[in-house]
Amino acid sequence: MPILNANPSLVYVGRFAPSPSGPLHFGSLVAALGSYLQARKLQGKWLVRIEDIDPPREISGASAHILDTLEQHHLYWDDTPVYQSQRTALYQEKINELVAQGLTFFCHCTRAQLASLAAKKLCPCADNVLSADDAAVRFKNSADIVSFYDLVQQQVNRVVSDTQAQFAIKRKDGLFAYQLAVVVDDIAQGISEVVRGADLLHATFYQLALYKAFGAQPPRFAHLPLVLSANGAKLSKQNHALAIDNQQVTQNLFNAMEFLGLMPPQSLAKAAPEDMLNWAINAWDLSAVPRKIACNDNRIKALYSI
Ligand code: GLU
After folding, report:
1. Domains along the chain?
2. What does DSSP assign to residue 188?
3. Bigger pLDDT: 66 or 295?
């Protein structure tokens, strides 16, 4: 008789969810490695989801490049990668559910109009029944979540200036917003724990509000320190990040492991990637990850940014 897991929530499912806005850089390799090690340590699944719902920001060929770089680093995922661009019917269905519950409004404001609203003030569209044509769909967020517990950063408090009140779940240009798609997919894919970069720490408040609206149990969250670039900003395509060099797999893995608080012995510095990863899975301890939002490491900056 097959053994069925009586409590599906006990199954660990993690994920890495890159946006194909450029090739993988060292910061995204750190997020990939951290989420991979946590899933493998807990003998769970590690899924890859390509978050390609923003065509204007997409770089042609980036999805394939990202998947290839993961493979070159022996970060093999489970199941078939999911592409958000193929899931828009589900996102619309979930928006319709929120609309039917009266949790949304159609907003015709421009960015400038929204920026000029006083903090904590709802935009006037919230009080009017406006046409859905050429409108953003905004979520009426009344969840008022003020803090959450993060497995790395521990207690995270909402910043006072952030009203959280009315974020877009579908943009005026008809594209689905990241906050909506990420929550819909994390629920649909049964993600039990989200391990990602601390650039998304405060997005978690928006996402927790959506979990509540969908009546879904949120995953646990673990936000890893960000890698900074030479100019002190988050390492990103716009901020001088170099694309990961697939000729330097061992060094990249070694550096990413050290960045995440592991102390790989020098003997591993020339080991095969699978031996390095096996060592890292064994040694992995989420509680040893530096509890910092960002890490200002000059050696890493010199190696991985211009
Ligand atoms: N797609 C997002 C990014 O590349 C990450 C989403 C997430 O991990 O929640 O920044």
Report:
1. 13-100+145-304 (3.40.50.620)
2. H
3. 66
